[in-house]
């Protein structure tokens, strides 16, 4: 079965020398290797400051704290995402206010965000779902107009671009996940990309119990709630080796995605996703809309290809559904949406096979 997701670990010969060096160095906690990973990740993103963490969820949590979201506040978010996006909102005691999606992309709708804003709104979380960048320019305008910070959940969208610049450069906070199945894995891990230098320094303190690592333990004075969210040297060593290959790995997703975009045009029962102007997806999954989805998924499975909607609508989780809302575009999009594989393990022959199968119908 051609899987929808797959873990990418560099070849032994490439990974082991660095990993063994760090494992037996006597220093496996957060140290110089973490620092090295952060500076290299910043370099890949092309701007901002990288706060490395032990998960993408930790990155969301710290972003919400730095955005000033507190108990009882509201955060506008999308229901079409992985659960951590919205579970994190509850971690600061805030409530989730749903915005609907755009029908042609599945990403959060700027118009719907604007309608959901009220005096309790303290942040907006947007998700580049399946690697498709959100409507960056419209969302930036709304953020400015209402003075509400935006957190971009780019867990699916490492390497995706807007106006030629990678995710991580467009909003005050962008989160990445380095969990097993993402574009880049450190086994587990995450990063919060922060544009403001002062907030970056505050983020460093929050990730380590509220302690300032630049001051000796005895002279430290904890003044804010902190957590144990740091990355360690072992995960960072894996991250550094992964970064050596990241351009070509992400490029494989993009090449497959573009090839499918070109060759799935005009097929009966298939509707392709549209991309916003000036954006370049990094196609973590290939997303499309199909008629008779159940029959489609079955036909693909019978031919050895995994197709799935993968995520459950988050508004169907009782705990996350603080303000039940009518989401007609999401109802429509979710009914026909499906993902097919397009990652680094998918060959051109695999793509051709999927295209032929879809042309034959289901
Ligand atoms: C994976 C993921 C996260 C959380 O990442 P973890 O590293 O698993 O905590 C957050 N948001 C989305 C959209 C994700 O897919």
Automatic annotation (TrEMBL):
Pfam families per UniProt: DegT_DnrJ_EryC1
Keyword Transferase attached: yes
CDD domains recorded: AHBA_syn (cd00616)
Domain of life: Bacteria
Protein keywords: Aminotransferase, Pyridoxal phosphate, Transferase
InterPro entries reported in the protein's UniProt record: DegT/StrS_aminotransferase, PyrdxlP-dep_Trfase, PyrdxlP-dep_Trfase_major, PyrdxlP-dep_Trfase_small
PTM-bearing positions, type N6-(pyridoxal phosphate)lysine: 182
GO terms, molecular function: pyridoxal phosphate binding; transaminase activity
Keyword Acetylation: no
SUPFAM superfamilies listed in its UniProt record: PLP-dependent transferases (SSF53383)
Active site: 182 (proton acceptor)
GO terms, biological process: polysaccharide biosynthetic process
Family recorded in the similarity comment: Belongs to the DegT/DnrJ/EryC1 family.
Protein name: Aminotransferase class V-fold PLP-dependent enzyme
Species assigned in the record: Flavobacterium resistens
